Amino acid sequence: MAAHILVLPGDYIGPEIMTEAVRVLEVVNRRFNLELTWEEGLLGGAALDVHGVPLPTQTMERARAADAILLGAVGGPKWDAVERHLRPERGLLGLRSELGLFGNLRPAILYPQLAEASSLKPEVVAGLDILIVRELTGGIYFGEPRGIRVLENGEREGFNTYVYNESEIRRIGHLAFSLARQRDHRVCSVDKSNVLEVTVLWREVMEEVARDYPDVTLSHMYVDNAAMQLVRAPKQFDVMVTGNMFGDILSDAAAMLTGSIGMLPSASLDRNGRGMYEPCHGSAPDIAGEGKANPLATILSVAMMLRYTLANPEAAAAIEQAVSTVLDQGLRTPDIQRAGVEAVSTSAMGDAVVAALRT
Ligand SMILES: NC(=O)c1ccc[n+]([C@@H]2O[C@H](COP(=O)([O-])OP(=O)(O)OC[C@H]3O[C@@H](n4cnc5c(N)ncnc54)[C@H](O)[C@@H]3O)[C@@H](O)[C@H]2O)c1
Ligand SMILES: CC(C)[C@H](C(=O)O)[C@@H](O)C(=O)O
Ligand SMILES: [Mg+2]
Q: What Pfam families is this protein classified in (predicted)?
């Protein structure tokens, strides 16, 4: 299927990891005759520097016209002092919201070769395969009112609103349950319904949705316990479904189970399966420009794009297999480095994945 992709490298390590992901895209495009085309655009700090806004109109228009979007990462200290509404992260949030990308899939899969790189004991994580389904366009990230106001006594007060309506909960619930059907048929809904009304409703609606999926088992867990269980016995989970902020936090925790946040890809889908694909990690300013960034999360995001939006599971599997091959070969960027073995650079890792795809 011919398709057009908007590539948004973003900031700091964003362009470094995206260079490798695009090389992988070039190879699969040829090998599988995919007829994919792509163009680059500006988002985040990179856009702010050129256009004065983190999400320029041109980027938004191209994003709407594209079949899929591939994103690196945005933000970093260079723009820490800019006004809140101009922060690079606002560009990313605007894109997710404007495109209705409510369904964020964050699969935490342990490649067996990386069992030693995980911060948990190998036996705790061996065979790990969790899918975190995070609601991405609602909750406390987008709730109104929000801001920082000055009280009568002159003290400042910051406030956000944690709000979900039934239809928002229902649509993320249906996505999670339908994905569970393709896996182990288990959904764990994560909330804080012992304290927050919004998640009392969340739990009720999840129960309603569950009635449409009698073959899928629903359980509930409070978010504090879920964070603990993720590092105690993560293999108990199949699909975890949760709201925007809890999902943000839990997915970074889950990332470390897989060896490194540099391994975790993501898909952000709208109701028609169109999507944006990006690593779960950020722009890693602390290692930018040093060739230390792990490009595999972004490369695996290309695989997710091929599977979920471009309907080419064969090409997706080829990329995942190539990643497995390079790990078998012992290649490791510094974040997943093994004691006594020299780490490889971002581009050397990209080279190896490209070579594995060609054979
Ligand atoms: N989707 C996104 O664009 C996104 C996601 C998260 C954070 N951010 C932004 O990124 C900036 C930095 O945030 P942060 O430092 O809290 O989180 P981060 O994910 O950028 O970095 C956290 C730690 O993980 C390491 N790391 C991240 N990605 C890596 C990779 N591919 N390979 C090796 N190591 C990697 C970093 O070096 C750092 O030590 C902030 O501006 C933040 O808002 C953007
Ligand atoms: C950069 C930020 C807005 C973003 C989020 O909080 O969603 C990031 O942390 C992520 O996980 O994609
Ligand atoms: Mg995050």
A: Iso_dh
